[in-house]
Amino acid sequence: MMTYYKEEPPKELNPQFKEYDRIIGLQNKENKTWRIIALASLSFLFLSLLLLLYAIKLPKTIPMVITVSEYGEAKYVGNVSKMSYSNMKIPDIAIQYQIKRFVTNMNTITSDAQVMRQNIRDCYNMLSGDAGLKLSNILKNDNPFDKFGDIKQSILLESILQLSPQSYQVDYIQSKITMTGVVTDRTRYRGIISIALLEPPEDKKIENPLGIYISDFDFTKVNTLTQGDK
């Protein structure tokens, strides 16, 4: 004979256990979220390290900043990359300015010896190769400081003509003036100047930032001007 028992409804869980289950579930979900965030952060960090290593291995370049005024004067502002000089296009006005400065500084005699010495130093900073030795021989045979205090000498540039990509013709008038301001001699000269575009040494980049060098020069007398000549 079989015995039947009456099925009793399931007992409700203690509310404290229900709250515990809810808190544990939320904590597990939160832990999962943080694990995802941590994995994403590690992946981003690893990718950043790879990009940093790639950037370190890239060729280094140094920015170059050189300004050229409307008159052609060049001024060195910042560091210059060694690779930039071969790609740099030098404006013709800057080359002409360098020629004018060389001719003027080389032939001017002022009443200030310090200015004259600075002019000569500037001339040497523009010369390359044997041109520096050539200038030294000229100054040895015709030392401008021997005339210092007796006369002044000024230069009037008339024209600069480009003869070839590397050479220019410059015409100028050289005037000798007494210390009282009387012009005693005016002579026209013509010069042929050869130009070389080179990268200047690191310690010369301020003096010659564009690397415009005079590789050779020659000056010849054209004629002596009378008082009424222009």
TrEMBL record:
Annotated TM spans: 36-56
Residues of the Bacterial virulence protein VirB8 domain: 19-221
A single Gene Ontology CC term: membrane
Membrane topology, from the record: Single-pass membrane protein
Pfam families: VirB8
Annotated keywords: Membrane, Transmembrane, Transmembrane helix
Location within or outside the cell: Membrane
Matching InterPro entries: NTF2-like_dom_sf, TrbF, VirB8
SUPFAM superfamilies tied to this protein: NTF2-like
Protein name: Bacterial virulence protein VirB8 domain-containing protein
Species assigned in the record: Treponema denticola H1-T
